[in-house]
Amino acid sequence: MAFAHQAIKFFDKLTVGEGFVSDSTQALEDYTLKQLQEYTVIVALNAQPSQAGRPLFEQYMESGGGWLGFHAAAYNDSNTEWPWFVHKPPMF
Questions:
Q1: What is the model's pLDDT at position 56?
Q2: DSSP SS3 for 43
Q3: Does the predicted TM-score (pTM) go above 0.85?
Q4: N or C: which end of the chain has fewer CB within 10 A?
Q5: Beta strands at 66-69 and 41-44: parallel, antiparallel or unpaired
């Protein structure tokens, strides 16, 4: 958790005076798709969206949203139990 707290402080400081907005939440499902589409990128620091937030995240991404995942947020093998998110290498 220390990583996430430090990263939030970093992103908040990074955005000051540059015309960017930094918000943080642990409950993506509290947003609507329209609200999320106001953001250029979602930065996931330590976890993927919860089960309740996954459909919204999928809609956001499929409508052109950006995402940057750190640490466990980027974990996407078959153990993830989220078929939409699991990376599937191209078949040759």
A1: 96
A2: strand
A3: no
A4: C
A5: parallel
